[in-house]
Amino acid sequence: MEGIINTNAFDVPLVNTPGRLGIVNGRVRMIKPKGFGPWPVIIPGENVEIFYGNQRIAGPTVIDDVQDLRVMAESIPSESRFEITVSPDKMAVTLSVTFRPGKQYQLVDAQYTRKLTVQAKLVKEIPPEPIDPMEVLKYLREHNLSGQVDYKEIMQACSELKDGEYVIARGIAPRPPIDGRVQLVCDFMTRPISRDDRERVDFRERMLIASVEPGDVLARWYPPKLGTPGRNIYGEEVMPRRPKMGIFKAGRGVKLIENGRIAVAEIAGRPVYRKGVLSVNQQIIVQQDVNMATGNIKFTGDVVVLGDVTEAMTVESGEIVDVKGNVYHAQVRAGSHIRVGAKLIGGHLMAGLMHPGLNEAASVLGRLGKDVLKAAAAVSQVTESKKGQYLAQDNVGLLIKRLFEQRFPHVPSLFAGITEFLKSLHADKELMQDNEDLKTRLSKALALGQYFIGAGPLYLESGAQLEQAAACLLELKDRFEALVDSSAEIIAGYCQNAQLEASGDITIRGPLTYNCHVSAGSNLVMYGECRSGEYYARSSIRAQTVGTGSMGVTRLAVGEGGTIRAAVLNPGVQLKIGAIPYEVTTTMYNAEFRINDGTIVARTFH
Description:
606 residues; alpha/beta; 23-stranded mixed beta sheet; four-stranded antiparallel beta sheet; 52 strands; 19% helix; 39% strand; elongated
C-alpha cells in the first residue's frame, strides 16, 4: 500500500512504493521497492524452471536480488526407443516402438508487476529420429532369436515414426495331426413324432425311436494321421500333439468288420453310441403301474411305463425310461433320458449318471485342480527367486501351507468335502467292478487328500508335488465326465420334494417346482414357478418366477462362465456363478446374471 508513513532525517515525507518484476527481452528485471513498500514475488509457470540462490523454487518466492535469480525455459529432447518381447509359446517376436517429439520453449516478456508469473511459449518442436534397424537385428542376434524374420516389417516399424507393435519374427508352427474320427451312418436320435407323420399326438405320449435291422451299417472309423514338428524362434523343435484315436468299440448286438473299421448290427433294435461303444438295445413296455404286483423293473434297454411308478418302487434302465403317468416317492435311474409325463412327487430321478453327485464332484475337482496348479506356479516362482540358496524341506512345506491359508483358503474345505464323496464312490462295488482304472485313480486321489487338510501341506516337499496332485485331480475330473452321457436329459411336469440329476439338460414343464434338489450337467429350464430348494446347472439356468420371500430359501448356481436368467426374481434368492455368490435384495424383472471382471453383473433382457 502506497502512502506517506515516515519521514527522512530532514522530515521530508517518503512514499512507500512496492517492488516490481518484469521480463524484458527474455531477462528478468527488478524495480526495488521504496520506503517500506513490499518486495516483489516471482511464481514459476508451466514449462519454466526457476533457481534462486542455487535452489529450485516451486511456488511463490520473494525476490530481493535478481543477480541470484536464474530463469530457464524447458527444453525436452526427442525420444526414439524400442522394446522386443517373446510370446509365451516362444513362437513370435514382437517389436514395440515409441517415438516422442522434442519441444523447445522460450520465456515470454511480461510487464512489471508486483507478483510475476513467469510463462513460456513453445517455439520449436523437434521431430524424433528414426530407429536404426541394425540395432533391432543386433538385439535379435545377441538373444539367439531366429525363425522367419520379417525385414520389411522391421524397416516399416523403425522408419514410420509412429508408435506401434509389430510381429517381426515367427517360428515355424507344427502341422497339426488329423484325429481319428467316427462317422455315424444310421440315425441314432429318438425324435418326437411330427403331426405330418401320423394322426395328431401329444409329444409326451408318443416318440419315434430309431431302429436298425441285422446287417445294417452303424458307423465307420477313419484312422488318425500324425502331424509334422515345427521350430520356435529359438530354433528348438516343437512337437505336434498326439492325434486322438477316436475309435469305437463293439457292444451288445454289434459286429466289427474290415479290420475294425466298419460296425454292423447283429440284431434288430435301437442303435446306441455312448462313450465310444456301439450297441443295439431292445425295449420293454410295462402296460400298467409299477407297483408291488410288478416288482422293481431293471432292464438294459429302454423301459416304457404306461402307468405310474408308485411309492418305494425302482425302475432302472441302461437306456431311456419313459413314464407316461406320475412318479410317487420312487427311484428312476437311466443310462440315457428320463421323461415323466405328469407329476413327480418325492423320489429321485438320475439320468446318464452312474453314481449320484458326479456333476458337482466333477466341477469341484476342476476348480481344485486349477487352484492347486496356481499354487504350484507360485511355489516355483518363490523357489526360483531363491536359486542358489538353501531352502529346507520343512520351509517349503511351511511356505505351501501359508500360501493355501492366504491365497487359497477354500482348498482344505473343498478337499474335505470331495474326500467324503470319493470314499462313497470307492465303496460302490458294482461301479468299481467294471472300472478298475477308476478305482486306481480314486485310491490315488484319496491318498493325496491328506496333504491338503489340516497340517498336511507341511509334509509337501516341492512345487512339483503340487503339479502332480493337480494333474491327478484334473485326470479324475475328466474320468468323471467320461462316466456320464452328456446328452442324457430329464423332462418332467410338476415337481415337489424331489431330487433330479442329469448329465445333460433338465426341463421342468409343470406350473411349479417346489423344494427340490436339481443338478443338470448342461442346462436347466423351468417353465413355471420355482420355490425353495437348490438348483444347479453347469451351463445355464432359465426360469420364470423364482423365490417367494417367505417360504424357505431358493438357491440357483451355475458353473464358471455360466448364466442365470429369470423373468421374476424375488428378494432372498441366493445365486452363485462359479465360486462367486450373489443375493437378490429386491424384486427383479427379466434379469440375466453372468460374470464380468470377477464379479456377478445383471442385465435386463427382452
